[in-house]
Amino acid sequence: PRTSAIMIRCHVYFNLAFLLETEFLTALRTKGLRGLQRETRLLKLEFFPIAAAAVWIGTFFEARIPELRQRCFEAPACVVHLRQRSAWLWPLEPQPESNEFAFFDGADIQWREFRGALPLMLPAAVLLTLVVRCVLALSARVRGGVHSPAAAVSVRLLVGVGFVGFLHGSGLLFLAALLLAFFASGRALAGTRFAAPCAWLLALAAIAAKEGKWPVRRLLKFRYILGQDWAWLDAYRGEYEWESSVNLLVLKLLSFALDSHASAKELLAAGHAPSTIAWANHRQRYSLSRCVAHSFYAPLFIAGPTITFDDFADQLETPRAMTGEPLAWYGAQLAMAMLMLEVACCTVPCFALSRSGVLGTLEPSLGAPAVLGTLNIMWLKFLVIWRVARCWALADGIDPPENMRRCVNNHYSVASFWKSWHVSFNKWLVRYIYVPLGGKDRRVLATFATFLFVAYWHDVEAKLLAWGGLNALFIALESVATPALQKPILALGLPTRHPFLYRLLCAGGGAFVIILLMAGNMIGYSFGLSGAEALLGSAASPAARAEILGVAGFVFWCLSVGALIMFEVRDFDGTYAQGPKGKASPAIAVAADLSGKSQ
């Protein structure tokens, strides 16, 4: 009965996960199940073998979960991360006599701390949103119903500074000093050739200085900077260390400095004198108050999503955030995602298996479902964290980018994946790194430089540098291989003469790409280089290699079946690339993703 309950939960998850995609849910609400049947093969008899295979595959992987739990319970390094009866849903778990207790997988520090802060964060978000809304409503009433940008800036500045002060205590002063350094240099150098290099040097130095493994961070104490009389400030640290907020703050400050620089260059190119109204408007738009309001904006301060300064400033002038029914549906999606994540953390100890190193010791038949489970729970974790922040921002009147556009099980292209995972960061990277370095004209250089910065920004670790290099390599190979393979296939007329065979070939290509994505992200965010070495070391014997090849073939078939389902989902929600003759095939859609023409 326990195994059956776990399998039911997993089947429900893999079906409901697609409803967390905004495009798919919107299409389903608009077209209904009849539209799903009319526009896709998912509910048609011809698709039954694929659907049956998907159900069998799901059952096979889910049947391994009890054994994964048992492996964790038997390993002291793994079981130490399981917190008995600290799960919010623990009464739903049976309490057998064995060591299979009700647990919450608390091995992921980021999710454990965020989850623990939710009971305080959610009421605070509601209260602060009401404060902002009331102030804006009163100011609009005084102005005869007209929105007041000045009030929007002031209230968000005050709320943001108070919020950051509560979070970081005296650390607010260090963050304010960093902000003032960016503002002063950006204001003084805007429009000159020194503006961008200076901003980037400040950013790289700030990221390096907050690293605990380097000596600079240990010197960032008030007793060293101001003397022993001020040492008492070091004890007032707030709820979180201020160093944990430097990375996201740097993205916002870089955005401010570079947007201000670009605007100043346009004014200089147009021949506007410093005394003209155009420059006065520039100074008002890129003022210190707006810089602080953007950098310390409370809903997005802890984890993002990242919003550029120009976008934020535009929304201060003209709010465009969703309200009413769309916001209610978005909140319902968030509630469902939180429930799914909580159930997952009480069912499969994927984080504990990964952090303890047990994952690297599993045989391939258990390692494959463990990797799949880890990636799904990691996706849910980031989705919940970012959507909590975005939902708060939407209620507050600011519309940041949606960070997770697609379910983690709905990707078959490396380039497409990175356009749908951490979308706001991706847009930031394209705007400030990829395009300035040449974009498509210098694709290899721009791609490698972008991923190198991403790895450095996350953490200065070997596994993340390897992750960045691997993803850049995968994108470069995909950009070359996709058109090269597509050309002979289209020349043979497979899409029109043999459409089913063509879809199978596309599904096989998608499965291969998914394996690359899984491998790269598990190295970067899970077991690292040492875990990869352990997995490779386990293949020393001929018997082990044979088992690995067998499991790899089985996983390839499983992912090919999954890719066929992805194609149908993309057909339904309309997110395939549009060609001159209507909807493009999956391979053409991938090629369009690479050229930046897809949605």
Please provide a written account of the structure.
The chain is mainly alpha-helical and 599 residues long. Helices cover 71% and strands 2% of the residues. The strands form two sheets. The chain has a two-stranded antiparallel sheet. Strand 3 (578-579) and strand 4 (582-583) form a beta hairpin. The longest helix has 34 residues, at 109-142. Mean pLDDT is 83; it is low at 91-101 and 577-599.
Write the layout of secondary structure elements.
Layout: H1 2-16, H2 22-39, H3 48-62, H4 65-74, H5 76-79, E1 82-84, E2 103-105, H6 109-142, H7 149-168, H8 171-189, H9 195-209, H10 215-219, H11 222-225, H12 232-235, H13 246-269, H14 277-285, H15 288-295, H16 298-301, H17 309-317, H18 324-345, H19 350-356, H20 364-396, H21 414-420, H22 423-434, H23 443-458, H24 462-491, H25 494-497, H26 499-525, H27 528-537, H28 542-573, E3 578-579, E4 582-583, H29 586-595
Antiparallel strand pairs: 1-2, 3-4
